[in-house]
Amino acid sequence: RNGLVSLLLVYVDDMIVTGDDEGEKRKMKETLAAEFDLKDLGKLRYFLGIEIARSETGLVMSQRKYTLDLLKETGKLGCRPFLTPMESGTRISIKSGTILDEEGKGRYQRLVGKLIYLTLTHPDITYAVGVLSQFMHAPTDCHWKSAERVLGYLKNDPGKGLLYTRQDQLSIEGYSDADWA
């Protein structure tokens, strides 16, 4: 309205109200409060497993607790940390290794599903998780080992996240290898 942006994100009974004008945000909250019983929790700090931290440079989104819980759940809290989510030159195929039993298959599927959720704040694991997700129907011990490697990479810096810097203007920059332009 009037060139101002206001956003409302709703997930079940949780809401985020945001925008570029404090007055508009207040009006939106008042309108919602007239219809629903609301509790204002103040500035957003945690939502759906994603931690929000503000600084002078901008906003950081991370999933530190989610990552540590995943490492604990899989028994990998004390695992060896890796600098990369996948070993360079790794080629995984459907025929790699021995197929996991039904219990192992379920564990693999749950782990990859949780890794997919982690890609929200960890775009650096997206390729490796994309490769792992191709084998959800018939995972093998090699696929499991590759998934454990991603966990080792996450252990290296569980609080790593995305920084959204403060800017007056939105700018989009693209880069390309000249050989592929």
UniProtKB/TrEMBL annotation:
Q: Can you tell which superkingdom this protein's organism belongs to?
A: Eukaryota
Q: Which residues form the Reverse transcriptase Ty1/copia-type domain?
A: 8-87
Fetch the InterPro entries from UniProt: DNA/RNA_pol_sf, RVT_2
Listed Pfam families: RVT_2
Q: Which PANTHER family match?
A: GAG-POL-RELATED RETROTRANSPOSON (PTHR11439), INTEGRASE CATALYTIC DOMAIN-CONTAINING PROTEIN (PTHR11439:SF467)
* Name listed for the protein in its UniProt record: Reverse transcriptase Ty1/copia-type domain-containing protein
